[in-house]
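Good morning,

Attaching, inline, the C-alpha cells for the sequence recovery test we're adding to the shared suite. The designed sequence is right after.
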C-alpha cells in the first residue's frame, strides 16, 4: 500500500528528477528513493520543504 507521502515524492521525482529533488531537500539521493518506496517515512518537516519547493518551481514556470 502506497502512502500519500510516497505518492507525493514519486510525483516530485517525475517532475524535477531524482537528483534535483535530493539536492533541493538537502538529503542523499538514496533517502529520496527510500521515501518513494516506503523504506523510511518522510518526516513532516521534509514534506513541508517539498511542498515549498514544488510551489516555487510551479511559480517560476507559469507566466503571470
Amino acid at each position: 500500500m502506497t502512502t500519500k507521502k510516497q505518492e507525493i515524492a514519486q510525483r516530485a521525482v517525475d517532475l524535477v528528477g531524482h537528483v534535483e529533488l535530493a539536492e533541493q531537500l538537502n538529503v542523499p539521493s538514496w533517502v529520496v528513493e527510500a521515501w518513494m518506496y516506503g523504506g523510511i517515512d518522510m518526516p513532516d518537516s521534509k514534506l513541508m520543504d517539498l511542498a515549498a519547493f514544488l510551489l516555487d518551481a510551479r511559480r517560476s514556470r507559469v507566466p503571470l
